[in-house]
């Protein structure tokens, strides 16, 4: 499995609660290879990684998979609502930005900036 496949697999196994960045995955893979826990081979222009015997032993003796911890206690229904709201907002903003006049784009930008400020005010317990 190559690094991007691992990122996708972790995101899938955690139900989207955790999607590590390439900037964290590839240095970790290099560290694990340096420690002899994984081995790499290049195939079809991609660097593929697999567990060594020492890596299998360490995995079996280690704690629960980190994606299980990342998804524990997640309110999946609320997370879905949040994602839909966020994607819907960005979709509407993108539509205005692509097809709206200069004045409409400026109004849309004001709405987005006001919304961001209002969200922070919620955390500050202010109206």
Number of helices, where a helix is a run of at least 4 consecutive DSSP H or I residues: 6
What string gives the helices and strands in order? HHEEHHHH
Cα-based radius of gyration, to the nearest Å: 21 Å
Helicity, as a percent range: 55-70%
Strand content: 5-15%
What would the principal axes of the Cα set say about the shape?
elongated
Question: Total strand count, please?
Answer: 2
Q: What is the rounded distance between the termini?
A: 50 Å
Write down the overall mean pLDDT.
89
Question: Which regions are unreliable across 5 or more consecutive residues at pLDDT < 50?
Answer: none
Largest sheet: 2 strands, antiparallel
Overall structural class, as computed from helix and strand content, comes to mainly alpha
Q: In terms of topology, how is this protein built?
A:
Elements: H1 3-13, H2 22-34, E1 38-43, E2 46-51, H3 53-61, H4 66-71, H5 76-99, H6 102-123
Antiparallel strand pairs: 1-2
Walk me through the structure.
- The protein has helices at residues 3-13, 22-34, 53-61, 66-71, 76-99, 102-123, and strands at residues 38-43, 46-51.
- The chain has 127 residues and is mainly alpha-helical.
- The protein has a two-stranded antiparallel sheet.
- The relative contact order is 0.09.
- The model has no long low-confidence stretch (mean pLDDT 89).
